[in-house]
Each structure stands twice: as structure tokens, then as C-alpha cells.
């Protein structure tokens, strides 16, 4: 007869801990996506419906450049850089076109929705509709406290956490970040203080898009690459942004970890197919009782 | 929405022009239907019937977006509720058209009231997100529920005959069912156009134009937003209820975001706040998909570009673009009423 | 004689700021009562409280002796209280006539909302009457957003009047008007006094002194003084706080 304590430890080690760690690796990736979305909303009031497609573009760029022989570590830096001009141009050509309209929330939502459709089809046109899988950049696994974890997932968690920290430092501890926050808080005031508001808008949008592209590079080896890969993932990122508070960086991090853990742990007790309705249900509840989300938005934080 | 550039839907002369487009559209549809019947076609008639069914969904989006100023990103939820209710009734209860439609109205009014109470707690962009979230929850639940066929959907909906009093329509007959759906969509259009021009609809327009002033005129905006929501849900559901009669099955895809998003695209391309615009838009986009689809599978690019152009340079949609031209041709006499 | 509108200890705070602090006054029926005070005195907040736009933290509002504290604007309108806005608050993309028709629909039974609009004869007649009275007949089919500033200000008052309120709150009706328009509007307000009780916020002291039967002076959310125009004008505290700056 084994003691209940030993059973509990076994359960923790072999069932709960791997699930929590898997959830954490997904959580870090979702947070990276959500950060881009939430920063763009916080500054520009734009719900970027094409964010999932920018994520897919990042993954495809990594795939294509990887096939040309570029090494994963170079891609990790190169792909986000390549995404910057795309994001910049999108902001200038699409968002600015309707930015000063009274209905900019809705108009930018519709425009980015249409743009996402086009991007998805372009990806199909260029790369085909088939699923492709880039090679795993880091192989093998490590045992931590008796829990076996693939090395790449471990890297993802650590690198992602470092990246999230870097974004936080960039927004809250640098002059550039102060400009962005000033523009989000009061653009006229910021403008009169010499903040180049237009460039800050484009730059922030490009930054968000670059983060989406980077998420694409990081997740491609795990989830495979296909033109509609952004669709399901973006739903989760949106949910995280809504629950955390549209425009809040802390909110995205907290809600990102919370929701992916809810998903990971609940799937031990209910069928995994029911975790999606659970998470979306949480989103609806949050919108009902606290539409502003758990945390306030960028300019006011 | 698109308030700052789209003209108000109530200007009398603009209304006449819109009605003229509607009459033109339904006459042309009738003529094409007759042509299809004469040619013994079934593929195009079925495609056109499907376009009309989705036109119902688009009209319901327009009631919310074009008249009340609420963007629903989850209207497919109600289309799906109608489709599943109808399929279940026809398959498991009785193969009766009128029972299926009646049950759809009852179920949608009850569920729509609950959905409306949830969604109308918030406004603007949050309304868009909450409608999206609600549809997502229900879609996933349907997708997982074995009793509703889960990911496969419900198949084996029987072919029905529809007694109309003066005639009986066989749903399996492409021309007959096309005519029936055309008549229903025309009735739906006429009824909604009437209602939107009655004081009730004009109060919705007032909410779209300036919700803040509305309570100071004696109207409760929440009550009106609720009524608009439940009305729109029923319109979408009635359209959805026709779907299994046409295709013989329903699938969870009907509730997915793609369906809701397509409806929004249809409304914007066709002409927001016109009711006939969504109908015209649905037929044109379906035709476009099928024409473009014959030479490339990448019709999303074409539709996406058309959609974005509509938002940026043609905010009144196709109907809005031809309306001024028609207005000039219609008699100029008008009363202030 | 009971007051048409009676305000007792009305208070609202936004966080630490007490915008309206224990305000009490009466508006006599059929008379013009003005609320004056320097910018930021809390006049607009007071109007928002009385008209149901915001709910008070404390205090009461009575309409003809009936408690209506905290009721939403649409209930207050049915009870006979209407208001206009300092910042023109119309349906800019709807025609002038439709603005008035919407506001006059209150005269019809709810069932009429589902009948053709032309069947709402009382609302249509009322709207036409107001067009005529405010000199807007020629502009009936013009979009409200295309009117001149002066015309919009007139429509703003007409929309508030459409319901035939017993108590009318006018928030700076002459704001931004030319000299001639201001005089005309003042005349119009004076004529209204016979029909209804008017509560007026006005910056133009000349207009206030000429029109008002009773003046309430606000300063930093509180009532500083009240009385007949001449009495208030002579009050040293009022002169220090208000006229002193003017």
C-alpha cells in the first residue's frame, strides 16, 4: 500500500508538473502575441485583426530563410527586423487613412480584418496550403526535479520570459518608452512636448508586428507552419488581451499565464476539447462584469 | 456605424432610391429564377438560394450596424441557432416547415434575450468583442456536443414539402425552393424596411447617430438596443433555419467567425444602413466567389481588396454608390414627412 | 405654493472633488430661475444631477412635490422635465425635422412606434409647429449638422421644448450667439416663462439680470447666495467671488 503522500507526490511529478510546464511554454508564446496586440491598442486604439497573419508571416519567413541555410539564431534576430518595415507601412498606408475618423475603432478593425484575409491568401499563393515543419533548433531534453522537458520548450520559456522583461523595460524604463506612454496618455500634450507622435505611432505598430513575427519564428518548430496558423492562436491572444485589459502590459502577462494555466490544468479533469469554451467563457464573463479588464491601459498605468 | 460619412438612412429621397434598387433586384432575381427553371438548372439555382439565405444573415448584421450602430462580430451565432433548431425539428420531431420556423422564433427570442442582456452591458468596440466571444463559446460547445453531431454536424435532414395554402413547394426542387426563399427574403426586406422607417426604427437610427441625447427625449436606449438585438437575432435565425432545408445538413462551421466575418464584409461591400445593400452584396459576393473560384482558389484576395476599398473609398457600399445617381432620376417632389 | 422644482442638499463627488456640495433651492412655477457662478462652480454638474444624467451622492430632487431623485432622464422627461445642452447635442446627420419629430414622439402612445411614421400625427404637428416658431421651416430637410451655429443653438432649445415640459433646464442657450441672436433668444425665453418653469444657466450677466425672477449663485460647488437679481447683484460676497473677477 502506498501512502497518500507518495501518491500525491507522484501525481504532482508525473501529471501536474509537466502540464504546468507545457502550459507555461504556451503561455509565454501567447503573451508575446498579446503584448503586440495590447501595445498597439493601448497607443493607437486599434484592434489589429491581422495580428495572427503577421505571426504566420514570421513563421513562413523563418521557414523560407531557414531553407536557404540561415541558422535559427540569426533568424531570431533577422525576422523581427524584416517585419518592422511591413508593420510601418501597414500603419502608414492603412491605419493613418482612417485614423482621424470618429469611428476609428471600428474602421481600423474592419481594415485590418480585410488586410488579414489578403495576407492569408498571399501566404497560400506563395507557400501553398500544406503544413510544413521546420527542424527543431534544439534537440534533446532535460530532467528538472524529476520532470522531463524538451530542451526547446525550456529555451522557449526562458527566452520568452527574458523577452517579456525586455519589452517591459523598454516601455517603462527607457526614454523611447516614455514617449510612447506620453503619446498614449495625451497625444496633443506629447506632441507639444516635442514627441514625434506620427513616428511613435508607426514605430509602435511596427514593434507590435515584429513581436508577432518573432512569436512565429519561436513557435514554428512546435506547432508547424501553415497559412491559417494564426487563426486559432490569435483567438487565444485576443482573449488574453481582453481579460488582462485592452492596452495593459501587466494585464497581458498576468492573464496570459492565468488563462494558459487554466487551460493546461483543467484539461487534466475535463476533456481537452472543453478547455476552449471554458477560456472563451471566462472572456465573456470578464467583458460583462469588468469590460476594461483586470488592469488599466497603457497611458494610465 | 461608419457614421461620420454614411448618410442617414431616413432621407426621404434616398429611401425612394433604395426601394427602387430593391424592386429592381427582386424583379431581376425572379427573372433569373424563371430562366434557371426553364433551362432545368440546379447548380446555379441552389447557389443563388444559398446567397439569399446568407443575405438574411447580412440583413441582421445591418439592423445592428447600419441602424443601431452596433458592430456584431458574432451574428453567425444566431444563424447557427436557427440552422440547428430547424435541423433538429425536421429530423427528430416532424418534417414540418412551419413547425421548424415557429420553433426557431421561440428558441431565438428566448436565447436572444439572454444574449442581448449579456452583450448590451457594453458598447462600441466591447460590444463587438463580447458578441465575438459569445459566438465563439457556443460554436465550441456545439463543436464538442455529440448530441448535435459534434464536428461533423447534423446530417440526414429529410427533404420536406412546404404547404403554402395555395401551392405546395418541394424543397428538393431547386426552382421551387429558390422562389420560396426569394419570396421570404423579399418579405423580410419589406418588413424590416417598413419597421426601420417607422418611429421604432427611427429611434434606433437616433441611437446610432447620438445615443447620449436619446434618453433626454424620453426613450430608454437599453430597451431599444435589446429590441434591436433580439430582432436581428431572429432575422439571422430565420435565414439559418432555411439552410438545412437547402443542404440537408448543418455543421458547426455555420457558427464560426468566418461566417460572422463574411456577413460583416457583405454588409459593408453592399451598403451599410440600406438593408437591400446586404442582399445585393450577398448575391454579388457569392457570384464573385464562384466566378473567381473557377480560375483561382485565391478569391480571398479579391474579396479582401474589395472589402478594404469599400471601407476606405466607398463607405456607403455599392448601393450607396449608385444611390445618388438614382435619386436624381426619381421625382423630386417630397414632403418633410 | 409648492415649488415646481425643489432641490435639497444635492451633493455629488467625483473622487475627492465635491463638484456639487449640499445645494438647496426652489424654482417657482412659471418663473425663470437662473444659476450663475464662475467657471468650475459646478453649474453643469448641478444640471446633470437634476436632469438624471448623473446620480447624486446625497440629497433630493422634487418635481411638483414628487421625489424624482436619481431617476434616469427618460423617466424625468415623462414626469415633465426636459433640458438643453451647453455643447450642442443634436442628431447631426439627421434632418432638422427628424430631430424635432424624434423629440415630439413622446406625445404618442408606444404602439404608434410600430405604425407608419405618418400616423404619428401629434408628433408631426408638434415638430412642424416648432419649425415655424423657431424660424427653421425653410431648413426642415437640411441635416442638423449643416446648420449655422446660431440655427443649431435654436434647434437645441426647440428639441428640448418638443416634449412640452413643465420644467425646462436651459444650459447656456446663448452660448456663442451673435448679439442680435442673443437678444432674440432672451425674448423667446421670457415668453416661455408663462407656459413653464425655466431653470437657466447663463454666462451673459445682462441676459440673466434682465430675464430672471430669481438668481442662485454658485461658487466652488456651494450656494453662495440667492434672491432677486438686484439683491444678488448688491451682495458683497457675490461681488467678491464672481463679479469681482468679471
Automatic annotation (TrEMBL), chain B:
<protein>
    <submittedName>
        <fullName>Branched-chain amino acid ABC transporter permease</fullName>
    </submittedName>
</protein>
<feature type="transmembrane region" description="Helical">
    <location>
        <begin position="300"/>
        <end position="322"/>
    </location>
</feature>
<feature type="transmembrane region" description="Helical">
    <location>
        <begin position="125"/>
        <end position="143"/>
    </location>
</feature>
<feature type="transmembrane region" description="Helical">
    <location>
        <begin position="51"/>
        <end position="77"/>
    </location>
</feature>
<keyword id="KW-1003">Cell membrane</keyword>
<feature type="transmembrane region" description="Helical">
    <location>
        <begin position="222"/>
        <end position="243"/>
    </location>
</feature>
<keyword id="KW-0812">Transmembrane</keyword>
<keyword id="KW-0472">Membrane</keyword>
<keyword id="KW-1133">Transmembrane helix</keyword>
<feature type="transmembrane region" description="Helical">
    <location>
        <begin position="20"/>
        <end position="39"/>
    </location>
</feature>
<dbReference type="Pfam" id="PF02653">
    <property type="entry name" value="BPD_transp_2"/>
</dbReference>
<dbReference type="InterPro" id="IPR043428">
    <property type="entry name" value="LivM-like"/>
</dbReference>
<feature type="transmembrane region" description="Helical">
    <location>
        <begin position="97"/>
        <end position="118"/>
    </location>
</feature>
<feature type="transmembrane region" description="Helical">
    <location>
        <begin position="263"/>
        <end position="288"/>
    </location>
</feature>
<dbReference type="InterPro" id="IPR001851">
    <property type="entry name" value="ABC_transp_permease"/>
</dbReference>
<feature type="transmembrane region" description="Helical">
    <location>
        <begin position="175"/>
        <end position="195"/>
    </location>
</feature>
From TrEMBL, chain C:
<feature type="domain" description="ABC transporter">
    <location>
        <begin position="5"/>
        <end position="245"/>
    </location>
</feature>
<keyword id="KW-0547">Nucleotide-binding</keyword>
<dbReference type="InterPro" id="IPR027417">
    <property type="entry name" value="P-loop_NTPase"/>
</dbReference>
<dbReference type="InterPro" id="IPR017871">
    <property type="entry name" value="ABC_transporter-like_CS"/>
</dbReference>
<dbReference type="InterPro" id="IPR051120">
    <property type="entry name" value="ABC_AA/LPS_Transport"/>
</dbReference>
<dbReference type="InterPro" id="IPR003593">
    <property type="entry name" value="AAA+_ATPase"/>
</dbReference>
<dbReference type="InterPro" id="IPR003439">
    <property type="entry name" value="ABC_transporter-like_ATP-bd"/>
</dbReference>
<keyword id="KW-0067">ATP-binding</keyword>
<protein>
    <submittedName>
        <fullName>ABC transporter ATP-binding protein</fullName>
    </submittedName>
</protein>
<dbReference type="Pfam" id="PF12399">
    <property type="entry name" value="BCA_ABC_TP_C"/>
</dbReference>
<dbReference type="InterPro" id="IPR032823">
    <property type="entry name" value="BCA_ABC_TP_C"/>
</dbReference>
<dbReference type="Pfam" id="PF00005">
    <property type="entry name" value="ABC_tran"/>
</dbReference>
<keyword id="KW-0813">Transport</keyword>
<dbReference type="GO" id="GO:0005524">
    <property type="term" value="F:ATP binding"/>
</dbReference>
Amino acid at each position: 500500500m502506498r501512502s497518500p503522500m507518495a501518491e500525491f507526490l507522484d501525481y504532482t511529478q508525473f501529471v501536474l508538473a509537466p502540464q504546468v510546464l507545457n502550459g507555461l511554454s504556451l503561455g509565454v508564446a501567447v503573451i508575446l502575441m498579446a503584448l503586440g496586440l495590447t501595445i498597439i491598442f493601448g497607443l493607437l486604439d486599434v484592434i489589429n485583426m491581422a495580428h495572427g497573419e503577421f505571426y504566420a508571416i514570421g513563421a513562413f519567413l523563418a521557414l523560407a530563410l531557414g531553407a536557404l541555410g540561415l541558422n535559427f539564431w540569426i533568424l531570431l534576430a533577422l525576422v523581427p527586423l524584416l517585419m518592422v518595415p511591413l508593420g510601418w507601412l501597414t500603419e502608414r498606408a492603412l491605419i493613418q487613412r482612417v485614423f482621424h475618423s470618429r469611428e476609428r475603432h471600428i474602421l481600423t478593425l474592419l481594415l485590418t480584418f480585410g488586410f488579414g484575409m489578403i495576407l492569408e491568401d498571399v501566404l497560400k499563393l506563395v507557400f501553398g496550403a500544406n503544413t510544413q515543419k521546420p527542424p527543431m533548433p534544439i534537440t534533446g531534453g532535460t530532467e528538472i526535479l524529476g520532470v522531463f522537458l524538451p530542451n526547446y520548450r525550456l529555451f522557449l520559456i526562458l527566452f520568452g520570459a527574458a523577452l517579456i522583461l525586455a519589452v517591459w523595460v523598454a516601455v517603462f524604463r527607457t526614454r523611447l518608452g516614455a514617449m510612447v506612454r506620453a503619446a498614449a496618455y495625451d497625444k496633443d500634450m506629447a506632441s507639444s512636448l516635442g514627441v514625434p507622435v506620427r513616428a511613435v505611432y508607426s514605430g509602435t505598430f511596427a514593434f507590435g508586428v515584429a513581436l508577432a513575427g518573432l512569436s512565429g519564428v519561436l513557435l514554428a518548430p512546435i506547432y508547424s507552419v501553415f497559412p491559417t496558423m494564426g487563426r486559432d492562436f490569435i483567438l487565444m491572444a485576443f482573449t488574453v488581451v481582453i481579460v488582462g485589459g485592452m492596452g495593459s502590459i501587466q494585464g497581458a502577462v498576468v492573464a496570459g499565464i492565468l488563462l494558459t494555466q487554466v487551460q493546461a490544468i483543467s484539461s487534466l479533469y475535463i476533456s481537452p476539447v472543453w478547455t476552449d469554451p471554458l477560456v472563451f467563457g471566462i472572456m465573456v464573463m470578464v467583458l460583462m462584469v469588468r469590460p476594461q479588464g483586470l488592469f488599466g491601459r497603457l497611458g494610465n498605468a | 456605424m461608419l457614421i461620420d460619412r454614411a448618410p442617414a438612412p431616413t432621407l426621404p429621397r434616398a429611401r425612394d432610391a433604395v426601394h427602387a434598387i430593391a424592386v429592381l433586384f427582386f424583379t431581376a432575381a425572379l427573372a433569373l429564377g424563371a430562366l434557371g427553371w426553364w433551362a432545368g438548372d440546379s447548380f446555379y439555382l441552389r447557389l443563388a438560394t444559398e446567397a439569399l439565405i446568407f443575405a438574411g444573415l447580412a440583413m441582421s448584421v445591418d439592423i445592428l450596424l447600419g441602424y443601431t450602430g452596433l458592430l456584431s462580430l458574432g451574428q453567425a451565432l444566431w444563424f447557427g441557432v436557427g440552422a440547428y433548431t430547424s435541423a433538429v425539428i425536421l429530423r427528430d420531431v416532424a418534417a414540418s416547415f412551419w413547425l421548424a420556423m415557429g420553433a426557431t422564433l421561440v428558441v431565438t427570442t428566448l436565447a436572444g434575450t439572454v444574449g442581448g442582456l449579456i452583450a448590451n452591458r457594453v458598447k462600441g468596440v466591447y460590444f463587438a468583442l463580447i458578441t465575438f466571444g459569445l459566438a465563439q463559446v457556443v460554436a465550441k460547445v456545439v463543436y464538442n456536443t455529440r448530441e448535435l453531431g459534434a464536428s461533423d454536424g447534423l446530417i440526414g435532414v429529410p427533404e420536406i414539402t412546404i404547404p403554402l395554402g395555395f401551392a405546395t413547394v418541394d424543397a428538393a426542387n431547386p426552382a421551387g425552393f429558390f422562389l420560396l426563399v426569394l419570396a421570404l427574403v423579399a418579405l423580410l426586406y419589406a418588413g424590416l424596411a417598413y419597421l426601420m422607417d417607422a418611429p421604432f426604427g427611427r429611434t434606433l437610427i437616433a441611437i446610432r447617430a447620438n445615443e447620449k441625447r436619446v434618453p433626454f427625449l424620453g426613450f430608454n436606449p437599453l430597451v431599444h438596443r435589446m429590441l434591436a438585438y433580439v430582432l436581428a437575432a431572429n432575422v439571422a435565425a430565420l435565414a439559418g433555419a432555411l439552410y438545412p432545408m437547402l443542404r440537408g445538413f448543418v455543421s458547426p462551421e455555420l457558427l464560426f467567425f468566418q461566417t460572422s466575418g463574411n456577413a460583416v464584409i457583405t454588409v459593408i461591400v453592399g451598403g451599410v444602413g440600406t438593408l437591400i445593400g446586404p442582399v445585393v452584396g450577398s448575391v454579388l459576393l457569392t457570384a464573385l466567389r464562384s466566378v473567381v473560384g473557377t480560375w483561382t482558389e485565391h478569391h480571398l484576395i479579391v474579396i479582401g481588396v474589395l472589402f478594404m476599398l469599400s471601407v476606405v473609398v466607398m463607405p456607403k457600399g455599392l448601393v450607396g454608390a449608385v444611390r445618388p445617381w438614382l435619386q436624381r432620376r426619381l421625382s423630386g417632389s417630397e414632403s418633410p414627412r | 405654493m409648492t415649488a415646481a422644482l425643489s432641490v435639497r442638499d444635492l451633493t455629488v463627488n467625483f473622487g475627492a472633488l465635491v463638484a456639487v456640495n449640499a445645494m438647496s433651492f426652489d424654482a417657482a412655477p412659471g418663473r425663470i430661475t437662473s444659476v450663475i457662478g464662475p467657471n468650475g462652480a459646478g453649474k453643469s454638474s448641478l444640471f446633470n444631477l437634476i436632469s438624471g444624467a448623473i446620480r447624486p451622492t446625497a440629497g433630493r430632487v422634487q418635481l411638483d412635490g414628487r421625489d424624482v431623485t436619481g431617476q434616469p432622464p427618460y423617466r424625468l422627461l415623462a414626469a415633465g422635465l426636459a433640458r438643453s445642452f451647453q455643447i450642442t447635442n443634436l442628431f447631426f446627420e439627421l434632418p432638422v425635422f427628424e430631430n424635432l419629430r424624434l423629440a415630439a414622439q413622446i406625445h404618442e402612445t408606444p404602439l404608434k412606434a410600430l405604425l407608419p411614421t405618418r400616423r404619428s400625427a401629434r408628433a408631426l404637428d408638434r415638430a412642424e409647429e416648432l419649425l415655424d416658431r423657431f424660424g427653421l421651416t425653410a431648413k426642415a430637410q437640411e441635416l442638423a449638422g449643416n446648420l449655422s451655429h446660431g440655427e443649431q443653438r435654436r434647434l437645441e432649445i426647440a428639441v428640448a421644448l418638443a416634449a412640452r415640459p413643465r420644467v425646462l433646464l436651459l444650459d447656456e442657450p446663448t452660448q456663442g450667439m451673435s448679439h442680435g441672436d442673443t437678444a432674440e433668444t432672451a425674448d423667446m425665453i421670457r415668453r416661455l416663462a408663462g407656459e413653464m418653469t425655466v431653470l437657466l444657466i447663463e454666462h451673459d450677466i445682462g441676459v440673466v439680470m434682465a430675464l430672471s425672477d430669481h438668481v442662485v449663485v454658485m461658487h466652488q460647488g456651494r450656494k453662495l447666495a440667492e434672491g432677486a437679481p438686484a439683491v444678488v447683484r448688491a451682495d458683497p460676497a457675490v461681488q467678491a467671488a464672481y463679479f469681482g473677477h468679471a
